[in-house]
Amino acid sequence: MNATDRDLPAPRVRRVVIVHGYESSPDANWFPWLQSTLEAEGVAVTVVPLPDPDDPDKAAWENAVSAALGVPDAATVVVAHSLGVVTALRVLAALPKPWELGGLVLVAGFMEPLEALPELDGFLATDVDVEGIATRIRERTVIRSDTDPFVPPAASDDLARRLDAQLQVHPGAGHFMADDGVTRLPALLDLIRTKKGLR
Fold it and tell me: CB-based contacts of 196: which residues, under 8 Å, 6+ apart?
């Protein structure tokens, strides 16, 4: 993709792929709300069911996301939460070039091992060429809270910097889970609608 391609208006969003996180599922948190809202607006939505979410296997998760995503394009948006962020970025990094993605929204994202979740150290042992991915994604946003008990703000901030992404801070949202009272995420929906020409 060259500079002139990136300057063209973003096409209407036609497909959204949602990647959940550790100890989660497609029917948890705000995923069902986002799926039903977008589908009512004519967008095809897949919430990827990741195998063994309580005991994640790196290869199995990547295979599941890769199968659901296929080859993305400028009308595709990927939304990922928590450990799903790491998986989504790895899948994008492994795609054969050339490819393009219309948008990437990462919620409570991180790349490095977390002090609060040492059981995931093995899953997180290898890094990703985040900077290389960024050049192929039209719009990039990282959403974090200031009260996340698992992901330090600096980890999400560093990811946003590496992606050259917009950063949104949502006060008091915890880890953006139903347990934190987050079953809807209007700011995320607005990103998909307004920045991708849904309206």
Answer: 10, 12, 13, 77, 102, 103, 139
